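note to self: dont lose this again. the chain is below, predicted strucutre after it. 112 aa total, dont forget to put it in the shared folder this time
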Amino acid sequence: MDRKQIALILFSVLMVVSLAEKLQASDLQIEVSQLQGNNQLYGVTQGSLRPQECGGRCAGRCSKTAYKKPCMFFCQKCCAKCLCVPPGTYGNKQVCPCYNNWKTQRGGPKCP
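---
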């Protein structure tokens, strides 16, 4: 082997190692953001929550209402069915169609 071939092999190895490190760092960053709750779609898109997570999400959703007890009841009922809770304390229902489209017998919104 001549020097050019050796240099090319070393360069290729360095590129592969560098790429592997970047991918590993990227995966680690994704895992950290999910653990910290920074993943903006987690819990918001339909089916992304586990049933045991509904209480915490609904507590946040109902935190500013004067009617906490009924809000929590219906929010948890909706969350159990849809496995999502829209972000914020009001509105944003379009991100969770199941939550948004569930209506009462009178045609009003079932989910807070």
